Amino acid sequence: MGLEGRVALVTGANRSIGKSLSLALARRGASVAVHFHSKSDDANAVVEEIRSAGGAAFAFRADVSNRGEVEEMIIRCREDLGPVDILVNNARQLVKGRSFIELNWEDDYAPHVEVMLKGTFNCCQAAIPAMIERGSGRIINILSTALGEKRARTNSYGSIKSALLYFSQTLAVEMGPHGITVNMVSPGLTTTERPILHSGGYQREYIDQTPVGRMGVPEDVAEAVMFFCGEETSFITGVNMAVSGGKVMF
Ligand SMILES: NC(=O)c1ccc[n+]([C@@H]2O[C@H](COP(=O)([O-])OP(=O)(O)OC[C@H]3O[C@@H](n4cnc5c(N)ncnc54)[C@H](OP(=O)(O)O)[C@@H]3O)[C@@H](O)[C@H]2O)c1
């Protein structure tokens, strides 16, 4: 599957899973808008890696919860690379899980609502009009196997990811007639360059319960996202694909 001539915007692309998504898109020939929120050095390093391999990339900063900043990012992306063909909503603000009784709205729910839900809403609304104009587009929203696991201490994170499932599927219904597919990829516990918030005991137990016998790596998630990006999968929409080594099956 080649993505030559396509422009892909990945939110939260400066590190971890988003970085891997950017590199995978670039390897397939897409020009990549590497979005970041606060860490411009990381984003510039991803851009440099793509360019030194012969690809095209620019870094764009935005707080995805801020509608004006997102609209500005989409405009600058169009000027520098072209209109967005592929949008991957991956950004999140990391919040440690708490038991329900310890939760408070401002610290635990609001960041998820603002960055994951409102951020995805903002990016979709800003990018979709140009996709409709061209009669094609690919949107992939990153969810989580937390939806299937229903673990304690995931009430805030899982609730917002659940909202994104409904958001994505109803958007898929509305966008189908425009040639735009909307799919979801749900990673299980995935090792990234930042420390995992869960304890070693938790990680061992998680691996024990995973048929494939390991945690995920960002490249596992990237491969699943690539599946939804090409022309070949134009008849697949509204699907939530688990990348969990078989631990969760939707
Ligand atoms: N890692 C896992 O085990 C795992 C498992 C299941 C699902 N997921 C999902 O996979 C996705 C990526 O997770 P990850 O662990 O790779 O992410 P991560 O390392 O926590 O990185 C989060 C990204 O979001 C950006 N961000 C934070 N606040 C933002 C804001 N207000 N506006 C715009 N961007 C903002 C960060 O940018 P800066 O660095 O510039 O601040 C960073 O690039 C998330 O949707 C997550 O829920 C991850």
Task: Please explain how this structure is put together.
The protein is of the alpha/beta class. It is built from eight helices and seven strands. It has helices spanning 16-27, 40-52, 67-80, 105-134, 146-149, 155-175, 200-208, 218-229; strands at residues 7-10, 31-36, 57-61, 86-89, 137-142, 180-187, 240-243. It has a seven-stranded parallel β-sheet with strand order 3-2-1-4-5-6-7, sandwiched between helices. Strand 4 (86-89), helix 4 (105-134) and strand 5 form a beta-alpha-beta unit. The relative contact order is 0.15. The mean pLDDT is 97. The structure holds NADP nicotinamide-adenine-dinucleotide phosphate. Residues 11-12, 14-18, 36-39, 63-65, 90-94, 115, 119, 142, 144, 187, 189-190, 192, 194 line the site of NADP nicotinamide-adenine-dinucleotide phosphate.
Could you tell me the radius of gyration in angstroms?
17 Å
Helix content: 40-55%
Bound molecules: NADP nicotinamide-adenine-dinucleotide phosphate
Q: Approximately how much beta-strand content do the residues carry?
A: 5-15%
CATH architecture: 3-Layer(aba) Sandwich
Task: Compose a concise summary of this entry.
The protein is of the alpha/beta class.
Q: Which terms would index this structure?
A:
alpha/beta, 46% helix, seven-stranded parallel β-sheet, 250 residues, binds NADP nicotinamide-adenine-dinucleotide phosphate, Rossmann fold
Produce the secondary structure layout.
Elements: E1 7-10, H1 16-27, E2 31-36, H2 40-52, E3 57-61, H3 67-80, E4 86-89, H4 105-134, E5 137-142, H5 146-149, H6 155-175, E6 180-187, H7 200-208, H8 218-229, E7 240-243
Parallel strand pairs: 1-2, 1-4, 2-3, 4-5, 5-6, 6-7
The structure holds NADP nicotinamide-adenine-dinucleotide phosphate (NAP).
NADP nicotinamide-adenine-dinucleotide phosphate binds near residues 12 and 16.
